[in-house]
Design a protein that fits this description.
This protein has six helices and eleven strands. By secondary structure, it is an alpha+beta fold. A hairpin with a 5-residue loop joins strand 1 and strand 2. The strands form three sheets. A five-stranded antiparallel sheet has the order 1-2-5-11-6.
């Protein structure tokens, strides 16, 4: 789809002329190894944890407006072990299963996966989503703590209270309003950004190379699976609770 048409449809969605429930069905992309992507419209949202919300951490404040000026594709599911193996030829995961999310991959290794996938597909459009893009997609047009799910964590997220201390095949829970699965659970997800403080927020001193991962996972209490919840780690760490999903730039 051309960029101009994408922007137009995204604008119509944002102002309410295209129902958000039909957006994912109308705008999808599948690549050569079966990774499915949903088109996320451009728009403005309130990033971070608002004063009326409970369980806010200091680094989630203050809530502030962010405008995303360009639509982008985001993985419908977390990257699976089968997809990782198709590109990398190995499977480092602790909880084995072709349709389970790949985990025990560090941020640097994810960058290597992206480089190889871009080469395989013949372009440079794959990348990790930014932290703002990830939260915007997780909220799916809602300002609630758990986005469009309204706090019903058991129906849409594998977390510490229901995951039995392991990952699960992707897409087994309910999607959000934009058709994205497991945004709030199963595994935490690396994003592109270095960890940093929000404008006007408390200063937190961390290693300069610390990278952000989002979304909560099988080892995370439900209250830390909120859309605004943030976590960080060094780019070389590998844990069985951290995986990722990819963003894909709209073709010009």
């Amino acid at each position: 789809m051309c960029a101009r048409l994408t922007v137009l449809l995204g604008t119509l969605l944002y102002v309410g002329f295209v129902p958000s429930s039909t957006w994912a069905a109308l705008q999808t992309h599948t690549n050569s190894i079966g990774m499915e992507f949903v088109l996320i419209p451009a728009g403005t949202f309130q990033m971070g944890c608002g004063s009326a919300q409970e369980d806010c951490a200091g680094d989630e404040k203050p809530q502030h407006e962010v405008r995303l000026s360009q639509a982008f594709y985001l993985g419908k599911y977390e990257v699976t072990q089968a997809q990782w193996e198709a590109v990398m030829g190995s499977n480092p995961s602790q909880f084995k299963g072709a349709d389970r999310p790949v985990e025990r991959v560090n941020w640097d290794e994810v960058q290597d996966f992206i480089r190889k996938l871009n080469a395989k597909e013949g372009h440079t459009r794959y990348r990790l989503p930014t932290e703002a893009e990830w939260e915007y997609a997780a909220r799916a047009g809602s300002g609630a703590a758990y986005g469009s799910h309204e706090g019903k964590t058991g129906k849409f997220a594998w977390h510490l209270g229901n995951a039995w201390k392991r990952t699960h095949p992707v897409g087994r829970k309910q999607p959000n309003a934009w058709g994205l699965y497991d945004m709030h659970g199963n595994v935490n997800e690396w994003v592109a950004d270095r960890y940093g403080n929000y404008p006007g927020g408390p200063v937190v001193a961390l290693p300069e190379e610390a990278r952000v991962f989002r979304g909560g996972g099988w080892s995370t209490p439900a209250k830390h699976c909120r859309a605004a919840s943030r976590h960080w780690g060094r780019p070389d760490i590998r844990y069985g609770f951290i995986g990722f999903r990819l963003a894909l730039a709209v073709e010009e």
